[in-house]
Amino acid sequence: MSKELDQTDRQIVEILESDGRTRLSEIGKAVGLTGPAVGERLRSLQHHGFIAGFGAQIDLRRFGYTIQALVRIKPRSGQLHNVEKMIEEQPRFSSCDRVTGDDCYVARLLLKDVAELDEILLPFHDRAETNTSIVKSFVFEPRLPPLD
């Protein structure tokens, strides 16, 4: 069961991506529909998998996570699955991508203090090589690509 997105669906998704708490009536005014019609389109977008869910944008600094690091991880021979499990089990990794190239993983690590790096990464050193870069600032936050 395939669904094609029309321009109105794209506008709804873009509005919600910028502010997930926008009222259906406000979205309706922006796209030329009633609130109930927007609600129906949202249900359809969710049903067809275009919208996976709704959540809050958290300010990690307010929780003490003032530093983020990008960690490239290259498992040693025969350690791929063990290293992946270690990454999954370390709650300070907020995301992890399996990548091509010299490294197998690129993960984002949340830190309250740079001194935590050794404590968190030391267990990996028997099973992997790591290379860490501290994030100085964000050029922009994650965003949607063009939906057309």
From TrEMBL:
GO terms for molecular function: sequence-specific DNA binding. Residues 5-66 form the HTH asnC-type domain. Pfam families: AsnC_trans_reg, HTH_AsnC-type. Keywords: DNA-binding, Transcription, Transcription regulation. GO terms for cellular component: cytosol. One of its GO terms (biological process) is response to amino acid. The keyword DNA-binding applies. This is Transcriptional regulator, AsnC family. It comes from Ruegeria halocynthiae.
